[in-house]
Amino acid sequence: ARAKLGRRNIVFVGLMGAGKSAIGRMVAQQLKVSFIDTDVEIERVSRMTIAELFATYGEEEFRALETRVIKRLLRGGPKVISTGGGAFINDNTRRHITRGGISLWLKADLEVLWERVNKRDHRPLLKTENPKATLAALMEKRYPIYAEADLTIESRDVRKEIIVTEVLAAI
Ligand code: S3P
Question: What is the 3 state secondary structure string of the chain?
């Protein structure tokens, strides 16, 4: 898989809780390329948390920063990059991702996503009265767009190693 990858990047897209960072990190280890999480990079350059960025500047500003950070990270592959759930939904960011790497949608169903995001509370988009319904609405809105990714892998409730093997076989 490493030889096939050449200098291309693998870019994980999909909703929060799908396992983009956990699976992405393991895939990068297997391929012996570097791994970067765009949310972590955004927090590093802004010296704010994602929640603080949303609260202080709003989602639009966050998306603009996200586009810039991702555009820069796509240079100089190969790398494995995991993106925040909204990155691939943004037209501008999606264009950069499509040009700069192999996009891979980690697709998961509502119960799997909910199980994983439920425990954490740092996701500003889920600070609503009914976060599970919000998540379901995001799925409905975003899945047709994630479906434009080059590859789709089902992130099921199985050992992560199994998903990693499937990703490596697909690229
Ligand atoms: C977002 C997902 C988050 C983060 C921000 C917005 C989204 O990333 O970028 O809270 O729009 O779905 P994760 O997918 O890593 O949770």
Answer: CHHHHCCCEEEEECCCCCCHHHHHHHHHHHHCCEEEEHHHHHHHHHCCCHHHHHHHHHHHHHHHHHHHHHHHHCCCCCEEEECCCCHHHCHHHHHHHHHHEEEEEEECCHHHHHHHHCCCCCCHHHCCCCHHHHHHHHHHHHHHHHCCCCEEEECCCCCHHHHHHHHHHHC
Mean predicted lDDT score pLDDT of the chain: 95
Distance (angstroms) between ligand 1 centre and the Cα of 87 equals 8
Residues in the chain, total: 171
Pocket test for ligand 1, best of 50, 62, 94 (most atoms within 8 A of CB): 50
Q: Which residues pair with 10 in a beta bridge?
A: 80, 102
Cβ(22)–Cβ(159) under 8 Å? Answer: no
ω into residue 124 within 30 of 0, thus cis?
no
pLDDT, tens only, 101-153: 999 999 999 999 998 898 766 789 998 999 999 999 999 999 999 999 999 99
Atom of ligand 1 nearest to the CA of 16: 14
